[in-house]
Design brief:
By secondary structure, the protein is an alpha/beta fold. Helix content is about 40%, strand content about 20%. It has two domains: about 5-140, Alpha-Beta Complex (inorganic pyrophosphatase (n-terminal core)); about 215-320, Diaminopimelate Epimerase, Chain A, domain 1 (Roll). Helix 1 packs antiparallel against helix 4. The structure holds manganese (II) ion.
Length: about 325
């Protein structure tokens, strides 16, 4: 019996789903009785995965950057920035074992693993279609509507809430095991998963109310200031849920570490995108992507953050009126 350690992207629906689909693949292709254990990995700036993370048996990394060590026997990733250095990439390119795969064209690593299992190893998992489908929607932010993304009625999205917030690794590993043979609804019905979901959902509903009181809408731009609330990790789609006609959203929030301005584009707006929000935020020392960006200030610079948010909102409103 082989021993396999699967290192997966922690607190991420695609990471957890990738671990589940890879486990089914490994049991089907390599060893039906394999003893598989799991360990979550978290992004830290410039840091390598510590050598103690690898076991003496086989090791796999899924949905996470490459690690140049001979202890790594399987690797699947779809991130653009999958290599920390040119040496790491060269180590991967030299590998001829046929067990390490990278394709940034895939929206989810889960779907990428299923694709390789089928196209390279001839294995299919028809009973995991539901899981693969949802991992692709969630990791690619392809929600069909703002209601779907905020009301969280689908079992998969309720499970997403638990996976993204839970710090309980034994619960996370039980979810990974259960996802290999149960439906989403059945995985959610585990009493411990259900209990965690209920408390997170209550907090989620409260955050919608806080946002409802803090947000206002004018000339295509939603603005909110929740700096007097502890709203770390709120659902980013709530402003567009409250004001579906909003094109952009400019928000101010505060945590012990920073005062923050968040700027976003409504993913469901029919308007053509005309601003690069990363460029707009770079002007204030921030950055990000064209459709979503942010600026971080020191905690005590809340007034500066508020002034920047006001200026950005006014610029966006002005341009939308043209
Ligand atoms: Mn992913």
């Amino acid at each position: 019996m082989k021993s396999m350690r699967v290192l997966y992207h922690d607190n991420c629906f695609d990471g957890v789903s990738s671990a589940a689909v890879f486990s089914r693949f490994y049991r089907g292709h390599v060893d039906a009785n394999a003893d598989i254990e799991y360990e979550g990995l978290t992004h830290k700036a410039g840091q390598l995965i510590s050598p103690e993370s690898f076991s003496g048996g086989e090791n796999a990394i899924v949905d996470f950057k490459y690690c140049a060590t001979d202890k790594l026997t399987w690797w699947f990733d779809h991130h653009e920035s999958a290599f920390l250095s040119q040496e790491d990439e060269a180590h991967f390119r030299r590998d001829t074992g046929g067990r390490k795969f990278h394709d940034p064209a895939y929206r989810s690593c889960t779907k990428f693993i299923a694709h390789i299992a089928k196209s390279v190893f001839g294995m299919e998992f028809p009973d995991l279609e539901e899981l693969i489908h949802w991992a692709d929607i969630i990791d690619g932010a392809q929600f069909e509507s703002v209601q779907a993304a905020v009301e969280l009625k689908e079992p998969a999205l309720r499970l997403m809430l638990v996976i993204e917030a839970s710090k309980n690794s034994s619960l996370m590993h039980r979810i990974i095991r259960n996802l290999q043979s149960r439906t989403m609804a059945q995985v959610l019905d585990d009493p411990d998963v259900r209990e965690k979901f209920e408390s997170l959902y209550k907090h989620h509903v409260e955050s919608i109310d806080i946002m409802r009181r803090a947000a206002h809408f004018k000339d295509g731009v939603i603005q909110f200031d929740v700096s007097d609330h502890d709203l770390d990790g709120y659902n980013k789609f709530i402003p567009y849920y409250l004001f579906p006609q909003g094109v952009y959203c400019v928000g101010v929030s505060k945590s012990p570490l920073r005062s923050k301005v968040s700027v976003g584009t409504n993913p469901w707006t029919p308007r053509e995108r005309q601003h690069n929000l990363a460029k707009l935020c770079e002007h204030y020392g921030g950055g990000g992507h064209a459709v979503v960006a942010a600026i971080s200030f020191k905690p005590e610079e809340l007034d500066t953050a508020r002034a920047a948010a006001r200026e950005i909102a006014e610029k966006l409103q002005h341009d939308l009126r043209q």
